[in-house]
Amino acid sequence: MIHDTGGSNLTDPVPNESASVVSRTVKGLFLAAAIIGLLLLDNYVKADSLPPGMRRIWSGAKLLENGLVLIVPVIILMTIALTEYSSVMSKIGAGTSSLFLTITGVVLLLSAWTGFAYQYGSYEACPAFLHQPAFNVIIIMCISIMGLFSWYSLKGEINHSMLSVAATGLGLIYIVLPFVFLTAIRVRWGTGTLFMALAVCKFTDVGAYYSGKLIGGAKMSPKVSPNKTWAGMIGGICAAVFSSLILHHFFAEDLGLFSVFVFGTTVALLAIVGDLSASLLKREAGIKDYGSLVKGYGGVLDMVDDVLFIGPGAYLFFALTSSL
């Protein structure tokens, strides 16, 4: 999330801008440390670390090697994000059920994750009906959207019902599917690869934020996000490419320099577009932030709007490069 203070009618007075930047930086470092700690825990907790008796009783112990440690935090973040999304959509007349979105999202995420753990990981105890994660995702999305469509039809609700169905579908595509792709990256290529994708995304945020602050200049999209500049975009891309060149030595040694450059540039562009897209939705709803979970950062959607956009792109990149 590249920080966005919104339009003039949505921006609170800032008494000390330098203090705000320092506060934001400190909070960002704490958030980064928490994420790194969680990823390290996920990387080192294995099924072999459990007592032999528990491994025999619990058939899902192998899931520890396929991202089980990350799944609970991911579900919590996704649930909060879907709740924030539902609240925003209701403000623009396309109300959705956060409960319906959450239940559908959790079922979709878990079914895809266990399927990927069977296909690419070591989860041999996966039920047979979950062996095809891509097919399961399509089926669950179709059933949920058609089921909601039928529900509104049977209830005879005409006003805004189509907007609600469309908003529900968008919520699944915009929020749930990116989390599915991120968990798939973890299962298929490991914690290090997932960390590299997230780190490059957030280095884009940092580079764009500070270069935009220092240089300023022409605005990218004044009506959507008045504080984002072209200088910030260039700074974000440079930070992404530079961080990719460093991180690939630790987490993606097989990538050539050209591939690393493509990865950094692609992630940066997707992150910036993702942030702008989130700003567009906020402007439409007339709000500054999606929530107030962390002061200076907003809600969960404010913090992961860029991550959501890089999920599918990063998965596609690693899938293509690993097949070459």
Note the topology.
Blueprint: H1 17-44, H2 52-57, H3 68-91, H4 98-120, H5 133-155, H6 161-189, H7 191-215, E1 219-221, E2 225-229, H8 230-251, H9 257-285, H10 300-323
Antiparallel strand pairs: 1-2
Helix pairs in contact: 3-4, 3-6, 4-5, 4-6, 5-6, 6-7, 6-10, 7-8, 7-9, 7-10, 8-9, 9-10
Short description:
The chain is mostly helical and 324 residues long. The protein has ten helices and two strands.
- Look at the structure and give the mean pLDDT: 83
What's the gyration radius in Å?
A: 21 Å
How are helices and strands ordered from N to C? HHHHHHHEEHHH
- Give the overall shape, derived from the CA principal axes: globular
Structural class: mainly alpha
Q: Give me the side-by-side strand order of the main sheet.
A: 1-2
**N-C termini distance:** 32 Å
| Largest sheet data | 2 strands, antiparallel
DSSP summary, beta strand count: 2
Helices, by number, come to 10
Output the keywords.
two-stranded antiparallel sheet; 2 strands; disordered N terminus; 324 residues; single chain; 2% strand; 2 domains; globular; mainly alpha
Outline the structure in words.
By secondary structure, the chain is an all-alpha fold. The chain folds into 2 domains: 1-44 and 191-324, no CATH class; 45-189. It is 72% helix and 2% strand. It has 10 helices and 2 strands. It has helices at residues 17-44, 52-57, 68-91, 98-120, 133-155, 161-189, 191-215, 230-251, 257-285, 300-323; strands at residues 219-221, 225-229. Strand 1 (219-221) and strand 2 form a beta hairpin. The protein is globular. Mean pLDDT is 83; it is low at 3-15.
